[in-house]
Design goal:
The complex is a heterodimer of chains A (362) and B (157).
Chain A (H helix, E strand, L loop, with lengths): L8 H14 L2 H38 L15 H11 L10 H19 L16 H9 L2 H11 L3 H32 L4 H7 L5 H4 L1 H18 L11 H4 L9 H26 L12 H8 L3 H22 L5 H29 L4
Chain B lengths: L1 H26 L26 E4 L6 E2 L6 H5 L5 E9 L5 E11 L8 H5 L5 E4 L13 E3 L6 E2 L5
Parallel strand pairs in B: 2-7
Antiparallel strand pairs in B: 1-5, 3-4, 4-6
The chains are: A mainly alpha (362), B alpha+beta (157).
Chain lengths: 362, 157
């Protein structure tokens, strides 16, 4: 295969064997942990800062504005300047706040998004942890974040925060169902939960093409439900700035606020990665049936670029949702989930099971 | 009932797509951007007609203005930012006549309500387009609007 030149598993194996040759197995594994951690930290910071900048620019263009354009060429260093400002700001101590929970909450939110990042395949052999229950792991881990949000709202000793956090809780409990069921549709089609194998199975065509109608419906439902799950507009009731000032992070300042902010953007990135991996083939290049020449040409684009490109398109879609649709009321939010998404989703699972049973998929 | 439900879903998706089409079309046509880069475009920046920068007394090329010194603008100004200092001059045919000595305008107190401009009986006042009014000394915000050696325009009573 031509894109084996981009296969990074030989590189990672070489690191592994050379580390094990030099030290005991425990220290070798420990060093690998530290290496992966440092790489992810750097990746997290760069992607988070870039997404904040991208969001501000994209929403500005959608509103016929220019957006940040002063710091650096095209305003590219704006978020770095913002981060430096946030680092210098005072961490305000809230009277009668639950001090321990108040300080822990931002870390829980950010750790949850870190954990989810570990299972995402960025390229061939470029995956920190290849679980055989990858999808289940990601869904489970990414919903830990809501505990941080609930704790932040509860411990702040503020009505705004508490209302925001409880809304977020109701929202996540509802929409987690739809996210899970729409992913189950693809798990039925793929027959595996392992993310690397799901990508490998899309070699001859992405699931959104080979899965007929149910895959398309599952993709749409996943986009809606995951936008709700990461608390982004039009489902941003948890922070609804016009009614709750900032919801669960009203009382946070400085770098703790930045943690919430960064985690929100990284959750968006993770959700987009999952959607790209499960529905659009992750790092797998676009292959069309028997067009050998076309397939070869596509193979020469590195998998990491494919992955980033697909993720960027989905991130653009999520941003488009936020800057187009008005915010839902809490009853509208629950109506959408329990009366529309859930029945459609259950029917969709049935339809996909039928199609797989009959062998009608490609 | 069932068809209403299905129809509602499709109708909802259709309206959502309409909205997304609008915002997307703005995103992919950056030429529609209305924001201007101010300090860079200072030279070609032209303010729109209804812009209220500061109150000015319009002078023509012969250094003549239309202010008769009637003081209506001073009476109408809610903030007291206009002071009229008038004097009496003798015209060619020997009559004594009231005329303007100094039209003093306190920019620092002005709220740009346009009452002076609207009520001036001889349309002497107007709004200038210059908005860069920051100064280091408060005294410089007090301006004398009639230029040095200017006279009343002929035919204005």
């Amino acid at each position: 295969m031509p894109f084996d030149i981009y296969d990074l598993s030989t590189f990672t194996h070489w690191i592994d064997t050379s580390l094990r040759a030099g030290m005991s197995p425990f220290w070798a594994v420990f060093t690998e942990f530290v290496l992966v951690g440092v790489v992810f930290l750097a990746f997290y910071a760069v992607v988070g800062l870039f997404l904040v900048y991208a969001e501000r620019r994209i929403c500005a263009f959608m509103q016929c504005r220019l957006g940040p354009n002063r710091v650096g060429p095209g305003g590219i260093f704006q978020t770095i300047a913002d981060l430096i400002k946030l680092l210098f700001k005072e961490l305000i101590y809230i009277k009668n706040a639950d001090k321990i929970l108040f300080n822990i909450a931002p870390f829980i939110v950010i750790i949850a998004s870190f954990l989810a990042l570990a299972a995402i395949p960025f390229g061939k052999g470029l995956q920190a942890m290849d679980f055989n229950i990858g999808i289940f792991y990601v869904v489970a881990v990414s919903s830990i974040g809501v505990i941080g949000i609930l704790l932040a709202g509860w411990s702040s000793n503020s009505k705004y925060s508490l209302i925001g956090a409880l809304r977020s809780g109701a929202q996540i409990i509802s929409y987690e169902l739809s996210v899970g069921l729409s992913l189950i549709v693809i798990v039925i089609l793929a027959g595996t939960m392992q993310l690397s194998e799901i990508v490998e199975m899309q070699r001859d065509g992405w699931f959104i093409f080979t899965g007929h109608l149910p895959a398309v419906i599952a993709f749409i439902i996943f986009m809606i439900a995951s936008t709700a799950e990461i608390n982004r507009g039009p489902f941003d009731l948890a922070e609804a700035e016009s009614e709750l000032t900032a919801g669960f992070h009203t009382e946070y300042s400085g770098i703790k606020f930045a943690f919430f902010f960064l985690a929100e953007y990284m959750n968006m990135f993770i959700v987009a990665s999952i959607a790209a991996t499960v529905f659009w083939g992750g790092w797998m290049p676009l292959h069309i049936g028997s067009w050998e020449g076309f397939n070869h040409a596509m193979d020469f684009i590195p998998p990491f670029i494919w992955y980033l490109g697909k993720t960027a398109v989905i991130i653009y879609l999520i941003m488009l949702f936020k800057w187009t649709f008005p915010r839902l009321r809490i009853d509208q939010l629950l109506t959408l989930e329990w009366k529309y998404l859930l029945p459609v989703n259950l029917f969709n699972v049935l339809l996909m099971a039928f199609i797989v049973l009959k062998g009608w998929h490609f | 009932m069932f068809f209403n439900y299905i129809g509602g879903i499709f109708k909802g998706i259709k309206t959502l797509l309409t909205g997304m089409k609008v915002t997307s079309s703005y995103f992919f046509r950056p030429s529609k951007i209305v924001t201007q880069k101010y300090p860079e475009n200072r030279k070609e920046l032209k303010m729109f007609d209804s812009f209220k920068g500061e109150v000015i007394l319009t002078h023509n090329e012969n250094n003549e203005h239309k202010c008769t010194g009637c003081g209506i603008c001073e009476i109408n100004c809610p903030n007291g930012s206009i002071e009229i200092v008038s004097m009496f001059i003798t015209t060619e045919d020997g009559k004594k006549k009231k005329a303007i000595d100094k039209h003093i305008y306190h920019l620092g107190m002005c709220t740009f309500c346009a009452l002076c401009v609207k009520t001036c009986p001889s349309n002497a006042l107007d709004f200038g387009k210059d908005f860069e009014q920051a100064v280091f000394d408060r005294a410089r915000l007090t301006k004398i609007l009639n230029k040095e050696g200017s006279k009343l325009m002929k035919g204005v009573e």
